[in-house]
Design brief:
The chain contains 1 helix and 48 strands. The protein is an all-beta fold. Among the domains are: about 10-75, no CATH class; about 85-170, Immunoglobulin-like (Sandwich).
Length: about 575
Amino acid sequence: MPSRPPGGTNSGGPYNDLSPALGVTTLQPGATVQVAASRAFTTADPTGTSYAFATYQDASLVWHDGPNVNFTVSAPLATNQPPTVSAGSNQSITLPATATLNGTVTDDGLPAGSTVTQTWSKFSGTGTVTFNNATSWSTVASFSTSGSYVLRLTASDGALSNSADVTIVVNSAGSSSGNTYYVSNSGNDSNSGTSTSSPWKTVSKVQSFLGNLRAGDRVLFLRGGIWFEELDVNNVNGTASAPITFGNYGSGNLPIIDGGGSKSGNSVNGGRQYCIGGSYSKISYVTIDGFECRYASAYGIAFFNVSAGSFGITVQNSYIHDCGNGDSGYHNQLQYFDWQAISSSGGTKFLNNKVGNCFGHNCVQIDGDLNKPLIQGNECYGWSHNCIDIKRSKGAVVDSNVVHDGLGIQQYTEAYYIENAGGSYSGGNWGSTTADVTWSRNVAYGSGFTAAFQCQDAGGPVMCHMFNNTVYANVMGIYGGADSGNTSQVSIYVENNIFDTSSPQAGSGYKQWDYNDNVQSGTIGSHDMRVSPLYMNAGAHDFHLQSGSPVIDKGTNVSLPYTGSAPDMGAFEH
């Protein structure tokens, strides 16, 4: 009989019915009966000793329990997983400084008795890297020359291994004759400013001193401080070998430049237009390194309408958030804009910044840079229109960025975008020049946007190379558009990407599409795949590949560094 409490010693439970349950069967004294029943056990069941028994009713309608069959429920055998590895956050340093690496490695303890080992190595970079202790999770790396380096932390449990990468941008040493000036909330503007014991107090004092700065000089703000002033760096000019740096010193949180506005919903009202920036002047070889910018009513850190010769502006290691007045103007949170697209200007670098809650328009934008601008190692989120936007630029590289979760307040929003507006607002210096970008090793995930990548002719020819990116979102993977109606003005080359979306391709202009993993869609190129790439942990937004990933060594050479017989697909080389 099914679903009734057992009798006898088992009446207190707990118990579970087995299946199939027998119906009513009448037996005579001395008869025997064979019963067979089963139950599937899951990980929700307790482990240990259990027993099964039959229950029956006698002629007096009293229930009894039959003999027990004892058995043991054991936990499922654990399956060895590769170690989980993090190489830490991307960094930018200036020689002769070193980089402190803070990696982490965790493991499941399998195989039994195994020991986890880890090793740091240089994956790519122009010079030599020396590690104080290459087998320690946390160590210090020194570099022989400037450049962009990818360092790899690899861990092994003896059977399986895994790795993670970190990008270190190493800047050239400044002039040995440069002076350093200090600014602190507890300082005094009558101080010399030349030591930590005699710092200036205000941004206004820094502004009044700008004309005295020379190549190689540094102006450093004390970490943990807050300034409610706008830092304008108009007419500040360093040199390629000795840039002028505005940075920080001390420990604790980044120094804050507060725009003074009031946040309400997706808008900041009142306050100053931006935190740090410059316009209508020549600004060259200036580095903004390590600030927090917030609550400005238009821009965050922005250089716009710069004059001829404004070359070598770098913004790095900064946190720029919650700026803009509700997308009512063309206001971008981290921006370089040369409306004339002058050939003697540009070479802009935005490195290792965190840019989010961009209420003005785009989060990150470079417009009118003809000299290979670089956007690398940034995290970007919460944008109104586009997150990382390139316009009218030549040789642009957008590399190793993570974009996620837009605001979803406009009909068309993209994570990574380029357009060429032709000569419509370039003072005759742009003409029919082709704008071009290389998107490499980037990630797009989350919601609140319509396309991960978009390559757009907005009046002039545009060329896009999309190599080794990962898209994990219910959006268009890449869209090719031609506002002019002339699709021949759009040229798109797509290789080695993972498109974990039902719509990897839309629009027109595709010249090459191959060696991609279209996870949820049919193959397009002759070497495309449709397989699960086996991410380390997509739920935690870790899109590194597991050791057994079927997309390892399945790409083609696109001149990015790789290990093995061929490049992997996706943003992270295993």
